[in-house]
Queue: 2 jobs
Job 1
Amino acid sequence: MTTILRTWDLTKVYDEKEIVRSVNMEIQQGEIYGFLGPNGAGKTTVMKMITNLVKPTAGEIEFFGDKMTHRSYEMLKRMGSIIEYPVFYDKLSARENLALHGEYMGYYDVQAMEEALELVKLSAVDKKPVKQFSLGMKQRLGIARAVMTKPELLILDEPINGLDPLGIKELREVFRMLSREYGMTLLISSHILGEIEQIADTIGVIREGVLVEQLAMDTIRNQNTQYI
Ligand code: ATP
């Protein structure tokens, strides 16, 4: 097994308070890592440090064995993420949104765009402007946008939040496809174990900024432990 991402004593202090405290996280290539914790536990802050949106107060992040102190564009391109709620041009269709984003980012590629739309089951939704999309469709479009460059690690902050049961089911299928067909590694946060236990290979539990558990899902199932 190859470790794709590892954090060493990752720490973030805000207003003299340790929001994230010495987190040592280890994510294996190809797995779905469920990052669990109640609201305010520090999940988003950890993800923001990994994706370079926030500077760690202390600690290190290693991606494919390379320290991420000096993050190159190439390194960050290998990581896709949706940390904040994805924003689109409401009057444009899914395809138009992706094309515009691709052009703006300088990697417009029709085939990659069509593959991404197919993957999230939005290729048939042709004319509909995004303002008519359900929350689940918007989440899937956000994922399509994030995977157009075929990142090796995809980081999603609470993607299931607010979705109805059908939306959750559709999104889980997308996660499975990304993992099985594309071999992508996924880091997905949630505050409800039940939302991701069916798909996660490993669960990391964070509470008050401390990673209190990091266990294979099989072990959790056998122990029948309630973490959250
Ligand atoms: P949620 O699901 O509610 O977003 P979370 O586990 O993702 O929870 P974070 O968003 O990482 O938690 O927030 C952890 C704590 O850090 C919270 O108490 C939050 O108020 C605080 N926090 C986050 N960002 C900042 C900031 N920029 N300045 C000060 N405090 C912050």
Job 2
Amino acid sequence: RRGASLTDLAEKIGVEAASLVQVLFHLGEMVTATQSVADDTLEVLGAELDYNIEVVSPEDEDRELLESFDLEFGEDIGDEDDLEARPPVVTVMGHVDHGKTKLLDALRNSNVQAREAGGITQAIGAYQVETEVDGNERKITFIDTPGHEAFTAMRARGAKSTDIAVLVVAADDGVMPQTIEALNHAKAADVPIVVAVNKVDKDTADPTRVRGQLSEFGLVPEEYGGDTQFVDVSAITGQGLENLLESIVLTADAALDLRANPDMPAQGVAIEAHLDKGRGPVATVLVHRGTLRIGESIVAGSAHGRVRALINDQGQNVDEAPPSMPVQVLGLTSVPGAGDNVLVVDDDRMARQIADKREARMRAAQQAKASRRKTLDQLFEQ
Ligand code: GTP
Ligand code: MG
């Protein structure tokens, strides 16, 4: 296990921890019995003792932990017969200031952009928009991501928990470094991309140039014989917004099978979390499957609790959140990490047990990292 100590290992293979300390000493490593040991050291030790030591990845370890509670996180969206259509989850990505937040504001008649510090998005926001396509009411879930270069991890995460990526490129500015970065995240996550060429209201806008530039990166517009939809839009005048929504719905219907069973214990992912002065830990959760309800026991990463309130993207209290709906969840005992998985479990006790185990593991991993740094420092002192 990652972050294991020599005492842990000694117990596993039935030897004295002290002799392992000695073996390592002879190999030139000073490690105490209770200290957590780096993966490569464990492997060296294994080779020396003729043991095949495999270090379990954190993902595998978490899977095992959940399995021990008869739980599984991930792919299972329910039996074929119980599946119902769910809205597509669409992540809006692109270079800083190209108008992602403004575009979402225009789509949902809000004004998030004006409230942001310096007009720069620093956290992931999630919203639902309703639109009519071919006479049918359709919901789309949007995830806003920051374009500033400092937020690579957030963009990568955004691309992972999405069905479709909307790549926003300002028509006056053209393709820029984070445009390419976002494009690569979307490609790596293997999600279909719709390009929104924004700011076409500007005198200096050159939407044709954007098409040419992106073609060089493999996004060839349909009108040039490729298979990527490009939609010219303006978040200021509202031009093209209907077309953009339609393109998204068409892409979802053509390329994806978006269904989930709303009647199973909810699972999802925390896309953002923070500590609110008045309300305590608040996590924005995107539900993947099942329906999350008030009163349920949940575990979110190494946080746990009972759902005290659910708040939708309009700030209204709701009783439940079905698949693809982002909600703020109140009632956690601590703040989970962004990207942590969220599961409804049988009861508070189970939630706490899982959370405690994850917490202990995280601490061990941190310790292992710190002790590795220490050994390196000692090395340089000599
Ligand atoms: P980050 O989240 O920091 O990456 O920026 P962003 O992509 O969300 O850009 P944002 O929505 O904050 O817009 C940046 C600036 O561009 C703001 O001043 C907007 O008013 C302006 N803007 C956005 N869309 C348009 C548009 O369609 N036309 C014009 N003229 N200006 C726009
Ligand atoms: Mg923004």
